[in-house]
Amino acid sequence: MGKPRIFITRPIAPVGVAMLKKKFQVDVYGKDRVIPRAELLRRLKATPYDAVLTILTERVDEVFFAAAGPQLKIVANYAVGFNNVDLEAAKRHGVVITNTPGDEINESVAEHTIALLFALAHRLVEGDDYVRAGKYKGWDPSLLIGTDFIGKTVGVVGAGRIGTRVMRRLYDGFHVKLIYTNETGNREAEKQFGARRVGLKELLQRSDFVTLHVPLLPSTRHLIGAAELKLMKKTAYLVNTSRGPIVSEKALVAALKRKRIAGAALDVFEHEPSVPALFKKLPNVITTPHIASATIEARQAMSRVAAQNIIAVLGGRRPKNRI
């Protein structure tokens, strides 16, 4: 019997690939772009892979599992989220699904979130655009007035691993007032940072900055819509580094256009890679291309964790990050 075969749907940080190549026969899609759906299914049908390492842009569904065949044991999703995977279909086919959470990834997303919060408060992107456009003619006491962060109320929607890190960094450095909403209480945040758990309605009404850190589930899709945006202060800002469909982009576009809120910063979008045209035009919107976890440390950790999950399952052991 030959070595088990692994297919990696896009080049990733080499540490995990090297780990897999020590034990298995590994094929990597050679182009650094999303593999076309037809090409992915063709490869799965042509080769009996025991494991597939997928990127969150791949749709892992009934058609995927049928193409892969009965020998497929694990799909290791190279992401913390797993909304691209049909878990019921995976269960029917007896395929283990794993993801890649970790301290490095949590820290990277938390840092990116904080960077966006400060960029909004101090209008950094607007200032950069202003200088690059040649508009800067000298100091002006009323030019691009922003807002201080100290003393403000920050509302954290989802106080899990990433949300807690955001709270810790902000409390340690700026002693902001912290409120949060979560399915369960977060004793660490309450004891160490003085955070108070409130309902979503109260959080939106009270916060100067709202940052989203919930997974994409049926219950969280469009968690922030027109009604929720109307609850926010007109001086408040919204940051989303979780998943795009958590926010109704139609509602957000309308709120920004009507100046219902002061601005928004988005690393994720409802219909990626499509971005509403208004987001690109409004000066009070900051957009980044889904790069909150795009650090050397985080990508290496994701690669390593995905490989460890595959090695565990093909070795007959339970993986650390089974979904």
UniProtKB/TrEMBL annotation:
Pfam families assigned: 2-Hacid_dh (PF00389), 2-Hacid_dh_C (PF02826)
Entries under InterPro entries matching the protein: D-2-hydroxyacid_DH, D-isomer_2_OHA_DH_cat_dom, D-isomer_DH_CS, D-isomer_DH_CS1, D-isomer_DH_NAD-bd, NAD(P)-bd_dom_sf
Ranges for domain D-isomer specific 2-hydroxyacid dehydrogenase catalytic: 6-323
Keyword field: Amino-acid biosynthesis, NAD, Oxidoreductase
Signal keyword on record: no
Molecular function, one GO term: NAD binding
SUPFAM superfamilies: Formate/glycerate dehydrogenase catalytic domain-like, NAD(P)-binding Rossmann-fold domains
Domain D-isomer specific 2-hydroxyacid dehydrogenase NAD-binding: start-end pairs: 114-292
Example of a GO biological process term: amino acid biosynthetic process
Family label: Belongs to the D-isomer specific 2-hydroxyacid dehydrogenase family.
Name of the molecule in the record: D-glycerate dehydrogenase
Organism name: Candidatus Uhrbacteria bacterium RIFCSPHIGHO2_02_FULL_53_13
